[in-house]
Write a structure and sequence with these properties.
single chain; Rossmann fold; 42% helix; binds 3,4-dihydroxybenzoic acid; binds magnesium ion; S-adenosyl-L-methionine; SAM-dependent_MTases_sf; SAM_O-MeTrfase; methyltransferase; transferase
Amino acid sequence: MTNEVSQEQYAESLFGPDEVLNKVTASILEQGIRDISIVPGYGRLLTLLVKSMRAADALEIGVLGGYSGVCLARGLDKSGRLVSLELRPEYAELAHANLRMAGFGDQVEYRVGDAQDSLRQLEEEGRKFDFFFIDADKGNYPNYLEWALKLARPGALIVGDNTFMRGKTTDASQQGNAVARMREFNERIATDPRLDSVMLPAYDGLAIARVKESS
Ligand code: DHB
Ligand code: MG
């Protein structure tokens, strides 16, 4: 036995408790939902990225209980807006209640249903975004990336959670559809000429890409 903690645990221990996000997590567990929210360190990164680029319009795909929604909304200024796409109405309701609790209820719009239908709708409405957070069904990540590129303002950031899929992505014996599509997503993040990108290998992997101004 050693007293060793992981580098991720050490990094998290530096930060004080976050009462609002703790309440979000508690509400997810109270509903009997498995808590697969973004990890706290990446939540802080979302806030920092949204704030640094002064994003006016953010879009997230997959909301669960609103943890990432709170992190994204924290980075926006008062006039900033978040559109959140979610398949399950009960998740969208829980997330909206949590965004209200956090003081962002009026800045977020939920669209319930198949995300690709909502994305098509947003395109028809001529909506554009400066920030995308993809955290939904892994088998559609390449499609969501393509939609993000369509709806992006020049210089927009596209962030994708769980690029390692708990080790499946790097395990060559894993050949299922979702993992194959995640590998495709990761390769496109790295090689698409329209993007400047980085892959963060901590936690379950996070992709961050910036849409080039000229694309
Ligand atoms: C898991 C984690 C996630 O963040 C997610 O979006 C989906 C699944 C998981 O750990 O299983
Ligand atoms: Mg995730």
